[in-house]
């Protein structure tokens, strides 16, 4: 194994980072609107704008209050609608439509072998994390991903730091020993707010966002045969992101925060 430095843990964001999930979320929202007889439909373009608000229930409330969507559902009706959306999303994930992005499974498995802990820190609902990880890594996924900080476990979602602070508490790890892997500016700000250096792998909805505070930005984590390209940050020694690279990014983040 390459030297990961003093890397204690890796925290992955879920939507857009573990997998390209947002089109499945959008389909589930639209199917839920149809099933609840709501005259709403979110296009890809509109959904891209709505993603500025993290969390499905918060996104629905924002749509009602800021876009004048009618009927003006109250919080209880939004919670009902969102529960149905979650069931639809889980079903789609279990039916097998989604795979992990390049390099995710490789990094998770090599971290387990190296004794580096792995967790997720996400605004999405916990049930969605269970579904995605069961469908992709199998029912024993919790031996590989030991910590889940998700959705309503905290009061304020990304870009606030709360979900990363909770993940750190569950890991029992200092922020300087951890690296976060994120795909969005909201996620980047959330991890930085908790003192964690960040590697960004932009996703289909977030390419083009401002990641200037990230220690590194790569187009993908990559795999043998799926070369990763560094957009900013330390150069890669291999063709793809490995534990050695994550260790160097964490160290560079330490120097950056001391500067
Ligand atoms: C991205 C999100 C989530 C999903 C929807 O989360 O903002 O809200 O779009 O999930 P992350 P829910 O990138 O932090 O994983 O409807 O379950 O909230
Ligand atoms: Mg994300």
Describe the model.
Helix content is 42%, strand content 11%. It is α/β, with parallel strands linked by helices and 259 residues long. The protein has a seven-stranded mixed sheet with strand order 3-2-1-4-5-6-7. β2 (117-122), α6 and β3 form a beta-alpha-beta unit. Magnesium ion binds next to loops.
Provide a concise account of the structure shown.
This protein has nine helices and seven strands. It is an alpha/beta fold.
CATH homologous superfamily of the largest domain, by name?
A: HAD superfamily/HAD-like
In whole angstroms, the N-to-C terminal distance is 31 Å
Class inferred from helices and paired strands = alpha/beta
CATH architecture heading of the largest domain: 3-Layer(aba) Sandwich
Largest sheet: 7 strands, mixed
**Attached small molecules:** xylulose-1,5-bisphosphate, magnesium ion
| Beta-strand proportion | 5-15%
Number of helices: 9
* SSE pattern: EHHHHHEHEHEHEEEH
User: Which consecutive residue ranges, at least 5 long each, have pLDDT under 50?
Assistant: none
CATH class bucket of the largest domain:
Alpha Beta
Strand order of the largest sheet: 3-2-1-4-5-6-7
Query: Helix proportion of residues, in percent?
Result: 40-55%
DSSP E strands, number: 7
How many structural domains are formed by the residues?
2
Q: What's the CATH topology label of the largest domain?
A: Rossmann fold
Mean of pLDDT: 95
């Amino acid at each position: 194994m390459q030297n990961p430095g003093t890397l204690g843990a890796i925290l992955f964001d879920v939507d857009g980072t573990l997998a390209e999930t947002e089109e499945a979320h959008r389909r589930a929202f639209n199917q839920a609107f149809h099933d609840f007889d709501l005259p709403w439909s979110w296009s890809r373009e509109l959904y891209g704008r709505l993603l500025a608000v993290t969390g499905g229930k918060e996104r629905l409330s924002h749509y009602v209050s800021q876009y004048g969507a009618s009927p003006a559902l109250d919080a209880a009706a939004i919670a009902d609608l969102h529960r149905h959306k979650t069931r639809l999303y889980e079903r789609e994930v279990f039916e097998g439509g989604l795979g992990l992005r390049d390099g995710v499974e490789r990094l998770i498995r090599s971290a387990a072998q190296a004794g580096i802990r792995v967790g997720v820190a996400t605004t999405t609902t916990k049930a969605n994390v269970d579904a995605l990880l069961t469908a992709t890594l199998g029912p024993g996924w919790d031996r590989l991903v030991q910590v889940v900080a998700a959705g309503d476990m905290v009061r304020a979602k990304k870009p606030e730091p709360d979900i990363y602070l909770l993940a750190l508490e569950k890991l029992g790890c200092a922020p300087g020993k951890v690296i976060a892997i994120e795909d969005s500016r909201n996620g980047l700000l959330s991890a930085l707010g908790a003192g964690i250096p960040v590697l960004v792998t932009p996703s289909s909805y977030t390419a083009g966002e401002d990641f200037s505070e990230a220690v590194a930005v790569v187009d993908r984590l990559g795999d043998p045969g799926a070369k990763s390209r560094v957009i900013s940050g330390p150069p890669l020694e291999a063709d793809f992101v490995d534990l050695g690279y994550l260790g160097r990014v964490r160290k560079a983040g330490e120097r950056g925060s001391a500067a």
